[in-house]
Design brief:
There is one protein chain. By secondary structure, the protein is α/β, with parallel strands linked by helices. The protein has two domains: about 160 residues, no CATH class; about 100 residues, no CATH class. Helix content is about 50%, strand content about 10%. The protein has eleven helices and eight strands. The strands form two sheets. It has a six-stranded mixed β-sheet, with helices on both faces. Strands 1-6 form a two-stranded antiparallel ribbon. Helix 6 packs across helix 10, helix 7 crosses helix 8 and helix 10 crosses helix 11. The longest helix is centred in the last third of the chain and has 25 residues. The protein is globular, with a radius of gyration of 20 Å.
Length: about 290
């Protein structure tokens, strides 16, 4: 999808184009199990990012899957490594782990500062008139998978804290609660969460009943409390279910294009690539 914007407007304002999602006909079977959290840690023991998977599909399709450490620094060495991998793979389609867009008329450095490393495949694809798609599932599909495993109240706590712990910074006292109220209102307005937890007092009640005995005060949690770990505590297990739902969709989106003989260049956070690798290699082997 492309938006046509007058040239004068491009110079004056930041204009964004969306990234289309891959339209899948059905939820195809994943050809091999995903790696567990422990297997991921074993693979990455002593390793470093980027983690790049290259594979050939029986259809003739070729995959370069660039697993990155997130960065908004245009000078990060990963940026040039990604550009080199792009040139070498000569892709016909790009996929990226974000749903944002691109600043029309903006420089690549500006895009990286805004979107992180995901700006690179978007910029390169659009400069070469190559289609670019999001690796992300729809919100409705992600939430449906999560609700099959956890109560909706606990999920809203998780989604609120996932952003809260990233944005808390050095806030103290009432500033912390103000941020939490803002994020709860924002997350609680998403489809499926409307009216589930109406205010911070109700949030505290859900927390105390479901998580408090195990994890203590949510206001002082470390950021890794919401990192995925299938063998971790309750919040980490929710994160793992959410991420694995996304992982399965990412695999299906990539295979959708590989099965059509495309040369696919995909970029996602490195842990996703490590987790997904066995399924993608099984597909490449005809599994």
């Amino acid at each position: 999808m492309r938006w046509l914007v007058p040239a004068a407007a491009l110079a004056a304002t930041a204009c964004w184009t969306p990234i289309d999602r891959v339209e899948l006909e059905s939820a195809a079977a994943i050809p091999a199990p995903l790696r567990t959290s422990a297997q991921h840690d074993s693979v990455m023991s002593g390793g470093s990012w980027p983690y790049v998977v290259r594979a050939s599909h029986p259809s003739g399709g070729e995959l370069t899957y660039f697993g990155s450490a997130h960065t908004r620094d245009p000078a990060n060495p990963q940026i040039e490594a990604m550009r080199t991998a792009w040139r070498e793979s000569r892709p016909t389609v790009a996929l990226t782990e974000n749903t944002g867009g691109w600043v029309l008329g903006g420089s690549l450095d500006r895009g990286i500062r805004s979107l992180g490393e995901f700006a690179v495949p978007i910029h390169l694809a659009r400069s070469q008139d190559i289609p670019v798609y999001s690796l992300e599932p729809t919100w409705e599909a992600e939430l449906a998978d999560a609700r099959a495993a956890f109560p909706v109240e606990e999920l809203l706590v998780f989604y609120t804290l996932r952003v809260f712990l990233a944005e808390r910074g050095d806030r103290t006292g009432e500033d912390i609660d103000d941020l939490a109220r803002h994020l709860l209102r924002k997350r609680g307005s998403r489809p499926g969460f409307e009216g589930v937890i109406p205010d911070l007092a109700a949030f505290d009640s859900v927390w105390d009943a479901a998580f408090g005995a195990e994890l203590g005060d949510w206001r002082t949690l470390p950021p890794e409390a919401v990192w995925p770990n299938d063998g971790g505590h309750s919040l980490q297990r929710i994160a793992d279910v959410v991420n694995r739902s996304r992982d399965r969709h990412m695999i299906r989106a990539i295979l959708h294009h590989l099965e059509r003989g495309e040369r696919v260049f995909a970029v996602a956070g490195g842990s996703h690539v490590v987790i997904q690798e066995p399924a993608l290699r099984a597909a490449a082997a005809g599994g």
